[in-house]
Amino acid sequence: MIKAILIFNNHGKPRLIRFYQYFAEDMQQQIIRETFHLVSKRDDNVCNFLEGGSLIGGSDYKLIYRHYATLYFVFCVDSSESELGILDLIQVFVETLDKCFENVCELDLIFHMDKVHYILQEVVMGGMVLETNMNEIVAQVEVQNRMEKSESHMERMLLRRHLEPLSPHSHELG
Amino acid sequence: MALKIVKGSIDRMFDKNLQDLVRGIRNHKEDEAKYISTCIDEIKQELKQDNIAVKANAVCKLTYLQMLGYDVSWAAFNIVEVMSSSKFTYKRIGYLAASQCFHESTDVIMLTTNQIRKDLSSPNQYDTGVALTGLSCFVTPDLARDLANDIMTLMSHTKPYIRKKAVLIMYKVFLKYPESLRPAFPRLKEKLEDPDPGVQSAAVNVICELARRNPKNYLSLAPLFFKLMTSSTNNWVLIKIIKLFGALTPLEPRLGKKLIEPLTNLIHSTSAMSLLYECVNTVIAVLISLSSGMPNHSASIQLCVQKLRILIEDSDQNCEPSVNACMKYLGLLAMSKILKTHPKSVQSHKDLILQCLDDKDESIRLRALDLLYGMVSKKNLMEIVKKLMLHVDKAEGTTYRDELLTKIIDICSQSNYQYITNFEWYISILVELTRLEGTRHGHLIASQMLDVAIRVKAIRVFAVAQMATLLDNAHLLTGNVQRKGICEVLYAAAWICGEFSEHLDNPTQTLEAMLRPKVATLPGHIQAVYVQNAAKLFATVLKSQEGNTDSTAAQETSQLMIDRLPLFVQSANLEVQERASCILQLVKYIQKLQQKDVEIAEEVIALFAGELNPVAPKAQKKVPVPEGLDLDAWINEPPSESESEDEQPRAIFAKEEPKHSRPRHTEVDEKELAKRREARKQEQANNPFYIKSSPSSQKVYQEAPGVEHIPVVQIDLSVPLKVPVFCPTGLPMSDQYVKLEEERRQKDRADKKKKEKKKRKEKRSGRGKRHDSGPESEEDITPAHMVDIVTEEMPENALPSDDDDKDPNDPHKALDIDLDKPLADSEKLPVRSHRAAEVLKSPAQDGDAESAASQEPKKKSSKEKREKKKDKDRDRKKSKEDKKKKKKHKHEEKGEDLLGGQAEEPVVQSEATSEVAAPPTSTTAEVSDLDFWLSNAPVPSNTQEAATVVAAAEAAPTSEVASGTAPDSEPDEPKDTETEETKSSKHKKKKQKKEKEEKEKKKKKKHHHHHHHSDGGGEESVQNGTVEEEEPLPPMSNYCLLAENSYIKMMMEDADKVNDIQGNLQDGSQVVVSVIFENKCDSFLKSMEFNVLDSLNSKLQRPEGSGPHDGLTVPFQLPPGVSNEARFVFTMQSIITPQKLKGTLTFIVKNEDSSTHEKLDFKLHFTCTSYLISTPCYSDAFAKLLESGDLKCSSVKLEGVVMPFHHLLARICFRHHFSVVERIDSCASMYSRSIQDHHVCLLVKTSGQTVSIDAKCDEPTLLGNVLDEIKQTFSQC
């Protein structure tokens, strides 16, 4: 099981947090701080596993993370997950983000936290890995985005229909 | 209305959206908190509006603020509002917010049940998906209970996207509502073979997660997982399965044996490091579970260790350095697992591990440390510790150093100081460790010092000297504040000096050191020990001084005590104060006596006489309950509990008997007791494992006759007894010991050699160099001291207690549920239902449940309670009234409830669950399946042998008819996997095994019978034609000879294993054919190629990229006498007629000197039967099917069939993949389904030797062919 997924930048600012076990907000922030503290002091060429922090988990839990440019992607998992498997999964997730945002960078995550969540929801659900096939993930995300678009399009159409009588053009016609 | 919408939309243009909020926060870096608080006010306003779009936008922003640490639970209700929007866009926002901030105590969750249910059944799969995703994060026990059934239905949704989500969320449902596990499990199991890989992976995921916590309940799934493991190509799934096997093997060693080979193959073949690593891990688990020292597994271990070494030392240039570090880390982790059982194979890589200690990555260093723990031996302990001490010096001021320190102590103290040959060295190491600045482990060091000093008698002299020096230099330890932790050491030092004061060189000086004013700055508990031990020291000093004629010295010592103790009397610490004042008064009294020239030393010493022995940590727990003591028995009669007691007829006329009803062993006469005591002592004396507990235990140990052979070496004079603690220059003290030790060992060796030489001289003959003492072996190293380790004290009759350290609060405990037991009615999942009356009227039509309200569950639970209560009451009554002898059956009881209970109360609907809850599974069948699968059956390479296997397998289909679950997988299981498993097993072993197997089979059969009889269910015996049989069924084989020549023999199994059944009609259906190749000659057969001439209708599936006429390479080679099985997949367009395909097998026969090409032609015959899948069918469904009128009729008559009816049925079941629907006397209905979903129904009647079969099928051609084949089957016999 995955207990939490945290994305924060090189300064420890959270960009996405996803806990699969309940923690109160202040506790969540504390965990982010602790995790950042643990992860940020590590060289880039040391191993990507850390025996968990004191706040989250305990002996059965591990932090598995990857550092991409300005962002840390940290997964907190228990012993039922394969360490290297999760490492691959992070890669899949990041590559998916890259596909969905077209050259993803930190700004995308900053301004579109909701979209990142929706993508993550297609990869991990309730702490369990849902899908590891990137094409499948991207396909599902895109279908849902299209639905959203068509809904907002419908709304605009509706709006226009209501606005029309007010427009000067229609007056002329009338 | 229109205006409102327009107005809302215009408003929205001025609202901030998420991006604006983020931008705003970024622009207000200085006063972020203030800015956000204004934003929250805005959001509150927005939430008050009616427009759902505005609300959704506000909720979206709140989700962002939640991430920044703001509590947004106040908006929970608005979130629910947004969740219930009909628009996907808003719904998604709502569910996301809910998943981020809802939890079990969010009260609005109660309001969501209906909304979620609506979304789950939405026609839009993404509405359903979003609801499932959200629910997975905030499911509560109530939600789980109310929605379990809906989710379970979704597990069979047409869209794989929904199926996989529904499967995954079931795990969360199980956790919150464990009762749902058993009813849902059959369907979950089904999903393991779902055609969609995503769904399959989800099911594997869930079952692995379940099995990890309670592995024993999932053993019966092992064959299924094994199949998946050998067939799946999804690494993620493979990893999960392999991990699961790692958890299962400790429970079932036979499973491990089966696994070794496929795992080794995977290790060799896979390129994915993650998979490789998990394989290695599981192989290790297997090897651990197998009894160690199996010679043929040493190869596997070597393979693992070798692969791990590559992981550890190789760094792939193409990888990021961090990934290489990960490999290293994992490699070490896995090594440590091997170490536990096969230390030898790891120890040879000591160099590598020591090297890892220098790694710059702390995680890797820690792992290497763990490994070192298991690698030490008597020989290398000093060397390793020396190396670690160097690291300790380097790693100043880090937590890593603390870790090093504990590791050093762990390494040295492990298994009762087994590897320490020189305790002086160890003490000096401990003393050196006290020099560490800022360590938190002073306590640990102290306890080691105490332990060693107490338990190793020979070391006490040395230890006391060292401790005295420590006390003398106490100021170095307590000097700065940072060293708080380390002053714990003084606790040990003071105690050791006091307790073993007779060994002190200069007790007066030590006494003085213990009473220094500076001591008052130490923590209270240490001061207390100081004071107490000062008194002990005082006694010793007094003794030594009283011997002298000069009495002033003694008086001076008393004076010293009297002068210094008042400091402690004033201590704020109660304990110190109390001890000090007590001792002060004592000393004052002693002083008075001294002034009167009374000799009192002996008496003072008597105060502290007696030796303290260590007590084992679990001693208290292990005190056995004495014989005759029943802790559960009432001491007094229990007070009358309820009014029911009053109902007891009072004895009014006759006097009640005195209460001798339960004679409790209160008085056992003295004689008896003495006798028992004697017997117990006798027993203990004879029991070698009994640890004697008298204070003289060590003496007993020393005097025991068996001890003489322990090499006792005189304390070497070359070892200085006193070495200054803080060496001014040069080597630290422990290093000197390392040197000395080496010298000593060399000397020892030299001595030994001399002795040997002498011996050899004596024995002139000298039959070779037996005692060539080359490299020093473990046993050669003699301890420098007589290591007399005092055993810990245990109470008399200590019980070997099994420590159950499981956490009682573990949520997974509730999921420890036996999944093989048949499902009881009461277990079915609660289904929403209308009022009971309606249910009773039209049980079949529950389709309109859509709009049904969901208040039921609560009522239900209260009703359950009531029921329970009633049960209890009834039980009580039963026990009272002895007239009621019979205990009612469970379902009878239920019936009573329904009748006797409130009729208007909604009942758990049992009909709707026929779809929900799969019918019960038969336990025995499953268990025996597993046993069978696990038993190492030989490859059926000739008909005779195949027959035995198949006959055993035949039990499966019949029992399956009764159970009616898992339509197509089970009957094939034993055959398939079992043949696969023994891929390379040799023929020689077969004969014995066969016998064994037959025995087993018989046993199983008996078991089977027993099961049904005890069940006593008349229904089942009617349904299942083979249950009541008196004689065993004749063996049946479904292997037939395909082709044979002098080199090779090919056997084909009935092509009955069919994959991909579900609606794959355009692509045709797939049929898998197992072919067994047996090498009949003395040469090696290799490069086998299997090729078939495709017809229009049937095609051999070839790997991508190969042409339509290319052959398939058989994935193995055959040494002489070996047989192996390969599978080939064929695609069929039409299945209504039998097919014949011509094929050739080409291969190379390789002798020592020559190799020749050979070929063998064969014909593959696909009968129509092979397209049928035995599928269970209920009699009502069967009747409907016959009435529907879609089926064409046909019939056939068989003459002269001489066999019992049940044999006949079994034969049809087995040969033609039918299942019995119903059997009445000599008439039975049977059903089967083709892979393209044709229904085939049979009505079989027999009279005399004539059997008539009436058949119906929606495809007349298929039916005709099947009937022909049946006819043929019976004409052969």
UniProtKB/TrEMBL annotation, chain A:
Localization per record: Cytoplasmic vesicle membrane; Golgi apparatus
Biological process, per Gene Ontology: Golgi to vacuole transport; intracellular protein transport
Domain AP complex mu/sigma subunit: 1-147
Residues in coiled coil: none
InterPro entries, per database record: AP_complex_ssu, AP_mu_sigma_su, APS3, Clathrin_sm-chain_CS, Longin-like_dom_sf
GO CC list: AP-3 adaptor complex; cytoplasmic vesicle membrane; Golgi apparatus
Gene3D superfamilies for this protein: 3.30.450.60
UniProt topology in membrane: Peripheral membrane protein
Pfam families for this protein: Clat_adaptor_s (PF01217)
Function: Part of the AP-3 complex, an adaptor-related complex which is not clathrin-associated. The complex is associated with the Golgi region as well as more peripheral structures. It facilitates the budding of vesicles from the Golgi membrane and may be directly involved in trafficking to lysosomes. In concert with the BLOC-1 complex, AP-3 is required to target cargos into vesicles assembled at cell bodies for delivery into neurites and nerve terminals.
Family: Belongs to the adaptor complexes small subunit family.
Protein name in UniProt: AP complex subunit sigma
Source organism: Sander lucioperca
